[in-house]
Structures are given as C-alpha cells and as structure tokens.
Amino acid sequence: MTRRILMFLLLISLLAIPAFAGGQQEAPADDDNTAAAEKTINDPRLFTPGKLTVATGEPAYPPWMMDDDPESGIGFENAMIYALAAELGFAKEDVVWVRQTFDQGIAPGAKPYDFNIQQYTVTEERREFVDFSMVYYQPEKAVVALPGSGASKAKSFADLRKLKWGATIGTADLFYIENIIGAKGVAVFNDQIGTFQALLGGQIDATCIELPTALFVTAVQVPEATVAAILPHDPKDLGHGMIFEKGNPIVEWINEGLEAIIADGVIADLTSQYLIGDDSIPEISK
C-alpha cells in the first residue's frame, strides 16, 4: 500500500512540472512589450530609455561644435546629432551630452552613453574594441604651419619629411604623418591645444589635421598659423563614424536615422555651412 501511494505522488509531481522539454516555452508578455518598444524613444536598449545619451570631447572643437557648447546645436557634429535625434523621435531636451576624452572613447569596455562623436576615424584596428556607425563625413588632411616655414615651401613628401612634426596622441593625424608622409621622430602631445602651443613655440615645424579644423583654427584660434597645403587622401581612412560599445544592439537603428538625414540633404547642408574648403590652398602629392 505504501509503495502505491509513493508512485501516485511521484506521478502527480511529474504532471505538475511545466512541459519545457516537449515544446518551445511561450514568451512572456513583457518580451512582447520590449520588442514593441525597440526603435522608439523608449527603447530599453538605450543607455537611459527615453533619452539619447551622446558623448563628445572635453573640450569639443570648432567647427565641429562651436564655443565648446554641444547643447547649443551650433556646429557640424552637434547640429547633426540634433537632426538625427529628431529623425529618431527625440525632442531636443531629450538629448543628454556627456564628456569623455578621445582615448577613452576608443578604449575597450563599457561606455556610459549610447554613442560618442568627436571626429573618430573608422579603422579596422579600432573595430576590434568598439563598433562604429556608418561614415557620416570624409575629410581631407591639411598641413598647418607658420608662414615662411619650410612647410609653406614644401612641394613634395620628400620636402615634408625634412620637417619637425607634431600631432595629438591617438589620432589618425599622427598615423598619417608617420605612415603616409613617412616622417620620423614625430613629437606627440596630449591634446590639440598642446600641439598648437608647440607649433607657436617653435618646438615643431608643422602638424597635420583635418582640413575643416585647420581652416577654422587658422582663421580664429591660431591666426598666426596658416594652412600650408592639402594632402592626398589616406586609403585606409574610411572617414568619420560614431563610436559605440562593442556589441551595442542599437547601431542598426542609429544607422537608419543617419541614412535618412543624409538622404534629406542634412549632412550636405551642414558641410556647406561649417566645413567650407578653400580652392586657393596648394595640394601636395607623393
């Protein structure tokens, strides 16, 4: 009698166990709500749902962002971000800006934001540690030097290699000087301000930066310097992309927004407004 009772209780307990193994478990209602919220301002995959959290440099440089004031929306990159945010459904007040150094942005690990924008060049080496958006701008390089220097008289890469060069650490500009121009003994500085101070102080003869930055810097910030030449494009420089934490699932959604504002002519209009070139600057080829 005892054995029959035990077998009966065992049968009851087995019948009470949900049949996970026999078929797919029904998705909880919460999963349906989560999926429905994706690609909306309340997307749970955002760093803070309801907000678009964007990192940029400290400081943020013109003409990419004017007056070190991302919230103003005045500048190429911050104006682009507000256009992107509107395309994705965010109000201007829902865009939250945080600050991070250039090197922190490309370092591996968790990111306290949705993405980072500060003229990051997309490279395969960086893709090992972070994810990138699609390219939103592809700049030309420029030589910045003092008038009358050897850089202002250079006609070839051979002439450029004779100069004392400096650049900001971790940038594509430093890579260009060392690997495309082929200069040796390049002085490295922690930020752009330090690089230009070295130029004005005679520690270096020239630096290499993106043409839009060079035009603004020499017109407003360092008028003692000049844009000496435009350089050929680095084939490994794929252009500027926004940086995401590796594996961030919102990259596709952000790219959809970027594609839309590019198709609408927003990037072209901002380029004309903030990143105007100068046809009078000589070009140097290899």
Describe, in plain words, how this protein is organized in 3D.
With 286 residues, the protein is an alpha/beta fold. It folds into 2 domains: 52-138 and 238-274, D-Maltodextrin-Binding Protein, domain 2 (3-Layer(aba) Sandwich), CATH 3.40.190.10; 141-231, D-Maltodextrin-Binding Protein, domain 2 (3-Layer(aba) Sandwich), CATH 3.40.190. It is 36% helix and 14% strand. It is built from 11 helices and 10 strands. It is elongated.
Main attributes of the structure:
single chain, 286 residues, alpha/beta, D-Maltodextrin-Binding Protein, domain 2, 2 domains, 5-stranded mixed sheet, 3-stranded parallel sheet, 11 helices, 10 strands, 14% strand, elongated, disordered N terminus
